[in-house]
Amino acid sequence: MLEVRGARSDEVDAAIECAGRAFGRDDPERVRGMTDFFSRIHKHDPYFRPENSRIAVVDGVVASVVQVFDREILVQGVPVPLGGIGSVGTDPAYQRQGLSNKVLEDAAQYMTRRGLVLSSLGTGIHDHYGKVGWQRFEHHAYLEVGVPAALPEAPEGVTIRQTEWASDGDVVARIHEQFSRGVSGAIHRPKELWEAAPRWRGIDPSRRHVAEVGGNVVAYRQDGGHDGDRIDEIGHAEGHVGAAHALILGFLAAKARGGATSVRIDTTTFGPWVEGLGAEITTGHYGGWMYRINDLALLMELLSPAMSCRLAASDDAGWAGCISLQTEIGDVSVAVERSGVTIRRGEPDRQSDARLVLTHKQAIELILGQVAPATFAEGSAPSALDALFPKTEYRWHSYDGF
């Protein structure tokens, strides 16, 4: 007998062990290591709930599992509920029976019921997840930087030191939140998430640095990669971009002393400044990330207050009309009135001022600010579209993985 459902509290360990067997294969030591990792990431997650483990039970045995991680993702700077997908695996003894697809379909339905309007995951097997609606997202850019032969002196008045998390953690969290305003892709990190993640991610303290000005922490940097040859994350307080530049210079200088000829910076934010150092830069894109919109209308409803504010602050303030989105995953209308933006489900309004026709993938790209809305408009498009769906920087930090 087959059951596909959420785990009960007394089945959580069995679900974790199933994932461990799936990833460990026939290597007992690797099975133990993966089971231990999955146990930490599940049980230390501050938002863990047993039913977030979606399982296929075959004759009483947990045979396949998908873990849903409750998060909030920033979309145009607005935190919206996200279901992160991880720990996906099927016990080798039960593979090739379609169980993983069934559990993924169940997970998608579960997220929709709970109001997790978006979902994301990282994978190298896109077709497997594509069958259940996840779409490849290829807009996460990074910089491959050739280390310059000569570097300028760091800005005066900036001191760089290793992060002391007990005293620096709160201000780093505030800087991260401020620096993420307006972007899409970054995970919103409440205090409990900052505190919990190192319990399963094994953060190396020597790879965390802060920059001080006048004795105050105003920027931070976290390094990654096997040899610490990548800046995973960097941010600065308002008005202190020079401190972030100092952190990048310190990183490049340290790598040059170690003999490195190239490094990676996992954001394009500082690209023009780095290029001004005389560095050779190549922009690359991660291809392993996927998104799924679980409820387009609810997602748009959550974004509508910010849409109203952007429109009111734009050159198109006072514009009124209706924009229809016709997509593979449902139709919605964006009604703009004096009172603000209202989202309506269902058939597109025949009297719309503009109709955008989008695939699921294009709807994701539009809402995350990676494509111009007029690209998809039938006929002429009002300029107000750019305030409603602005182009936005996309950021994703590996620290936020699940």
Structural write-up:
By secondary structure, this protein is an alpha+beta fold. The protein folds into three domains: 2-136, Aminopeptidase (3-Layer(aba) Sandwich), CATH 3.40.630.30; 142-284, Gcn5-related N-acetyltransferase (GNAT) (Aminopeptidase), CATH 3.40.630; 295-388, Nonspecific Lipid-transfer Protein, Chain A (2-Layer Sandwich), CATH 3.30.1050. The protein contains twelve helices and 19 strands. The chain has helices at residues 12-24, 28-43, 99-114, 126-130, 165-179, 191-196, 198-201, 241-257, 271-276, 296-312, 360-367, 385-388, and strands at 2-6, 53-58, 61-75, 78-90, 118-122, 135-136, 140-146, 158-162, 208-213, 216-224, 230-236, 262-265, 281-286, 289-293, 321-327, 330-337, 340-345, 354-358, 377-378. It has a seven-stranded mixed sheet with strand order 1-2-3-4-5-14-6. A seven-stranded mixed sheet has the order 8-9-10-11-12-7-13. A hairpin with a 2-residue loop joins β2 (53-58) and β3. α1 (12-24) packs across α2 (28-43). The radius of gyration is 23 Å and the shape is globular. The mean pLDDT is 94.
